[in-house]
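Duplicate of #3305? Posting structure anyway:
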């Protein structure tokens, strides 16, 4: 009588489940590390804000120059925008020397983050510098070093170095940048830009009127004279402080077109 074939031994699935569990744990660890890292970079996105026309007129930029200057210049810019960096290096210093420091113009900076990797974070960092009264010093450095931080994994560290170089308290600045401070202010500035029809950066307004982005100071002067013909003939005024209080578009709209 033939003997029955021996029953096949069933393989245990325990090693498979152990391996699967280890893979899941490792994956969760990587995800947690990434989430923690993102948080430590600070807020890099805006929040939805809905402002009435009256509220939009009270959105504050960062200004320098005489409050009663006959010319008010608004610039909407993004620290990660290459054209804004070029404008800051080449044209803005001439505008400051020729118009702002002579009392002819007040210059107001508004953020308009375009959506580059660190557009929003860098905009917030400018507000953090302004918190310590060093916005304009920091603004020149962050534009000049744009290629260093534009694709950096931890730009907040780079920003802190620039802030220290500009004379800020590095620890206080870094705490600000790695938080969500000024998210609403930058978001409101972006909404103001959208309400004014800003589509790119840099975009300039002279006494409330949008102008073509100038390629030179001479080009700017021609457009300014067309809007405020008497401003260049005004007697030179004493130089104003480098850093001035924040401003609002409503005040600029009410500013005289010329003297």
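Output from current build:
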């Amino acid at each position: 009588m033939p003997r029955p074939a021996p029953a096949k031994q069933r393989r245990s699935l325990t090693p498979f489940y152990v391996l699967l569990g280890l893979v899941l744990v490792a994956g969760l660890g990587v995800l947690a590390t990434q989430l923690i890292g993102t948080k430590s970079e600070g807020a890099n996105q805006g929040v939805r804000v809905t402002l009435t026309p009256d509220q939009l007129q009270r959105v504050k930029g960062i200004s320098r120059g005489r409050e009663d200057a006959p010319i008010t210049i608004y610039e909407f810019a993004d620290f990660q925008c290459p054209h804004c960096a070029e404008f800051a290096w080449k044209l803005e210093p001439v505008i400051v020397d020729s118009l702002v420091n002579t009392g002819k113009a007040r210059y107001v900076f508004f953020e308009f983050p375009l959506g580059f990797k660190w557009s929003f974070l860098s905009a917030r960092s400018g507000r953090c510098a302004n918190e310590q009264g060093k916005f304009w010093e920091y603004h020149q450095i962050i534009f000049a070093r744009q290629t260093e931080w534009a694709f950096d994994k931890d730009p907040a560290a780079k920003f802190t170095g620039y802030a220290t170089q500009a004379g800020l308290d590095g620890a206080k600045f870094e705490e600000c940048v790695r938080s969500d401070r000024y998210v609403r202010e930058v978001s409101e500035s972006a909404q103001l830009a959208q309400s004014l029809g800003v589509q790119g950066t840099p975009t300039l307004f002279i006494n409330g009127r949008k102008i073509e982005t100038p390629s030179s100071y001479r080009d700017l002067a021609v457009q300014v004279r067309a809007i405020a013909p008497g401003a260049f003939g005004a007697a030179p005024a004493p130089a104003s402080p480098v850093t001035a209080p924040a401003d609002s578009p409503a005040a600029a709209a009410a500013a005289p077109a010329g003297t």
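Confirmed duplicate; merging threads. Residues 31 and 149 are 24 Å apart (CA to CA). The longest strand covers residues 71-77.
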